[in-house]
User: Fold Short chain enoyl-CoA hydratase /3-hydroxyacyl-CoA dehydrogenase from Litoreibacter meonggei.
Amino acid sequence: MKQAPKHPVRLERQGNVALVVIDNPPVNALGVSVRLGIAAALNAALADDKTDAIIIAANGRTFPVGADIREFDMAPQEPSLGQLCSLVESARKPVIAAIQGTALGGGLELAMAAHYRVSAKTARMGLPELLLGILPGAGGTQRLPRLIGPELALDMMLTGNQVSAEIAAEIGLVDLVAEDDLRVEAVTYASTVKKPRPTSEHRAHLLDGAGYMAAVAARRARVKAELGANALAPLKIVNCVESALLLPIETGLQVERSAFEECVTSRESKGLRHAFFAERAAAKFPEAAEAKPAQVERVAIIGGGLMGSGIAIAALQSGLAVTLVELDEHGVNSALERIGAHYERSIAKGRLSEAQGAAALTHLQLTNKLDLIGEADLVIEAVAENFELKANLLADIAVFAKSEAVIATNTSYLDLAALAEATGRPEDTIGLHFFAPAQANKLVEVGVHDDASAQAVMTALGFARALGKTAVRAHVHNGFGEGYIGNSILEAYRHAADIMLEDGATPSQIDGAMREFGFRLGPYQIADMSGLDIAYARRQLKPRSPDARYVEIADKMVEQGWLGQKSGRGYYIYTGGHHMGVPNGDVLKMIAEHRAHKGIVPRKFSDRDIRDRILLAIVNAGARLLGEGVAARPSDIDAVMVHGFGYPRSRGGPMMDADATTPSIIASRLSVLAPEDPSLWGAAPVLTMLANERQKFADLNTV
Ligand code: COA
Assistant:
């Protein structure tokens, strides 16, 4: 466990101004030792006759980014952040916050409790609590509306969006934007302010009560319409802002406190917090002990199809130079069209200005000459999923790539170690598995085989992080790890769904049950979107165990030419302007005939049966991956499922869901749901496995 710094807060002095300096790397989170330190330093400065004003400042890259999220599951320790903010606000001497970096959550609440705010030009401010299923709980819901008005306050709290220093000054969140040196200018400012100015006494925004009340009511209706009547934290935020308008601040703070407590103990918030830490834990690769990521300035991508172009866009968006290699002129032109169309769409939607779009494209070099990859620090092969094709290409890449370059294959199923061998430089070669659409999907799996060097792995990780992706390590070894984590789980998910389809459920019933659970799309909608032919081609190549149950429905559909959205027909029909499609009656008829042919008497599945069977199949596949050492931690599986496959983030992930379910329930559901399908659950004793992994994980975290 990380040790808290011994002195996370120091009291400094410049003339008659005292500086309370927070120093709690990396992000100055406001854990209990910091809160105690601030309170002590503040009290000392208040007691000192030679101090006329007090600045709260922070060392390092940022003003506090919030409360310490890890403390939310612990017993409360005083002073709470709310108590600290009250102490700051009631100070008898002027208190000025000097803000740099990102003042988020509790950090901004602390700044708002100060009497004045000075910020660096590059600073940003926001209240992102909603993204963790909570609300500002240290007075933020009461002080922000007093400073900037209830409507803007609701905008900030209901989106979690950050505002720049310039905007903050415009809307009244900060009093001064420093021109150059924040600390120096804050001290000068402090010597000009004469007396405290408690935020709770700001009245201007509370006076137009009637107009604001109508605006708040309208916002409540909008939240309910968009998120449903049970959207806990968003509705509580609206209630708290309403309280700010109607009640004295002391009462408003009490309303906020009880709303915060209800949210922080909710399953939704626990899930969102788990997802936050899972993403960060996944990026901790064991190779970090041996190597640091090398800088990637230029990336070469071979293959400008949907995947290659998507990776190119993601890299361009992050400011990298890209060399995109296609086979011939036709390939070059279609890649250019695809990337151009993306930029046109982004410009049309107002996400980019024309100038930004044009500037990004100047960093793109499109060519059909493989020898131009020689300047790239990383070369990614993203051609069709065919072993011969990839192996030959990788051998050529190894010839032209510079000796320090890392070589990556975007394979999702092929034998990674054999592909690495084909380069003749296996130590430089790793897997980098992006998910379509690569410019938007946040997940990247880093496939690590036993001969890969720590340097190659870390450089690939650094690249994925530079693209803003959540990177998860998949260890491919001893025949384990085909399909890495994501596709192995997806296969189990699809298999569980297909068995229910064959036994009596319909595609739309299964999709509906999974959407109801929280997935944006059900498995058959995803199949239609991806194109049934892709998975079909893979199945044809894959050896099949004669003992495993096999469902031929999807194969029969491909043989009929029903490929999903691309052919207008799949599990759904996509004509007549139905974007989501309407169930394809021919498929239902075909399934009925198929059952009759196999002698299957259809039975009914409740939505709960569907959901549980699929979730248990996912969890079981996850447990197996942990047992095989492909995934390092249960939370890595959660990160993959949330980012790559749309598992509802507010549930944290499937492994968190399994952990939250008592083993006896899992056991009884397993035996009730699928006693006849051992292949569905596999031989992995899921419960023992989970218990073991939980213990391992707990041990890791207490070292
Ligand atoms: N409490 C505890 N730990 C926090 C934290 C918080 N509020 N915010 C960040 N951290 C930790 C991260 O877990 C990470 O720890 P690790 O190095 O052990 O993995 C470390 O600080 C750095 O964070 P990271 O997210 O990797 O850095 P970044 O530069 O990419 O992003 C932030 C920085 C602040 C934008 C991002 O961490 C963030 O959004 N934090 C949450 C902010 C928030 O929601 N505040 C409101 C809570 S009240």
Summary: Confidence is low (pLDDT under 50) at residues 672-685, 693-703. Residues 26-27, 29, 65-70, 102, 104-106, 128-129, 132, 280 surround coenzyme A (CB under 6 Å). Residues 339 and 671 are 50 Å apart (CA to CA).
